[in-house]
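Today's session is about reading a structure prediction critically. Students often jump straight to the picture, but the first step is always the sequence itself: look for stretches that repeat, for charged clusters, for runs of hydrophobic residues. Only then move on to the predicted structure, which in these notes is written as discrete structure tokens rather than atom positions. Here is the chain we will use throughout the hour.
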Amino acid sequence: MNLEELRKENEVLDIFCELVQIPSPSLKEEKVIEWILNFAKKNEIDAKCDNYGNVYINIPAKDSTKEPIMLSSHMDVVGDDSPIELILDGDYIKAKGRTLGADDKVGVACALKLAKDIKNGIVDAAGGLEITFTRDEETGMSGAEHLEFDKFKSKYVLVCDADKLGQLQVSGASYTNAKIIVKGLKGGHSGIDIADTTRLNAAKLIAELIAEFPQGVYYTDNTGVITSCNIGAIVAGGVQNSVASIVEKGTKTNNYIEEIMKKSSTNIINTLGMASYSIRSASVEKENELKALMQSIINKFNKKYKGLAEAEIEFEIHLLPFEKADDDRIEKVHTKACEIVGIKNDISSFHAGAETHIYCHNKNSKGEYFMPSLLGLADVYNMHSAAEKVDYKTLLKGYEVIKNTFINFNK
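Below is the predicted structure for this chain, in token form.
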């Protein structure tokens, strides 16, 4: 069976193929927004854009005693706006020579199919359904940040953006940057002043300091929550003139590190060294514990080198953590839905950021904090690369999972 025949037999697959053939790089989603709005109008689905261009769909509840649930997916993809030619390769759909965009048009397609099936009475909408399609998830999550949260009635949000069928991720890591600064209180010339034991080299000192810091996984538990730190860069004063020369000459190279080292200064006693770290955790308690450990290492260093050198550490939060809630309602209904479809779900934590992190720190129209989960509705491979592909059979099952999750939620 070819792709056209598969599309005729499976509407969710047809919707998906239509969507991925519309290029929608971050903040250039206009064409896919237009397609979604036209789809909604054709099927008499209430859809509108907010002031930022996010799309909102509302299907009212038939039973006012039932609460609604929200599905959320993002419309933008990694890649450019060049044409997309689809290829069916066995069980996989991919794009010729470029990123497919299954992330996250799998989620958009499943949500639109569910909205249509509810509207046509194929699926009972006892509790109603809210859907958000956001912009710019891939580069900054600005779409989610601009959502009009206080207009949503739902408490539970299913963010359909994981990359494996059956995934239900109930917590996700924060993203905090740490910057370490070491200063030598006296500089000098390495030929003239090298014997002066009061002139400590900041490059040497920061290497000594970093050797005391943890690297990699600091903590993990049986729920899958990982707390980690990773060093990203180390810079010391000897590169100052070399970098200035590269900028002045407009040097172009594929290896700036090597270019910098060619002309870095070796005849100075450095007075400044800096290092950058990332810290990730889905547990505020464990992240704070790791930060306290890093600060204690700084304090110990400052005590050792008092009067000769000093160090400091600065923390900057880029993304607050998505912590696991005590409420397990979604876990139960998702488990049941997967059983109906004939698959086993995987409930876990993830060590990255997603729009779940935005939702969980905001409140709905009732003043309740949202309770998001991250769902996988298809197996997507090689995400964000030219080799990206999706197993279409898992996408068909993924729709059945989200449909039965919705049905079970309303029971």
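Discussion point for the tutorial: The chain has a mean pLDDT of 95.
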